[in-house]
Backbone:
């Protein structure tokens, strides 16, 4: 039985992390089969992206929206790992 090779993505230091991550999500460079398709607004909807804070979630959402431009899409679910509400 052959195992798939691990997929490791890196972002160099000094580069805008969230902008680079958004660009790779749109281009399909992170997960095979997951890329923005302008003809299919649901092409990103099945993904979940975990980020460290709510601020990072807002910025990533904004970066994705900017890259999509005038097209329409249901964005991936973007979940912050920290800063959770204790009341929930």
Residues:
């Amino acid at each position: 039985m052959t195992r798939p090779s691990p997929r490791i993505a890196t972002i160099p230091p000094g580069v805008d992390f969230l902008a680079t991550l958004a660009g790779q999500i749109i281009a399909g460079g992170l997960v095979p089969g997951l890329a923005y398709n302008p003809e299919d607004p649901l092409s990103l909807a099945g993904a979940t992206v975990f980020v460290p804070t709510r601020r990072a979630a807002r910025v990533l959402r904004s970066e994705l929206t900017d890259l999509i431009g005038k097209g329409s899409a249901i964005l991936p679910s973007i979940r912050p790992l920290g800063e959770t509400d204790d009341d929930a």
In short: The CA atoms of residues 2 and 8 lie 18 Å apart. The longest strand covers residues 48-51. Strands lie at 48-51, 77-80. The mean pLDDT is 87.
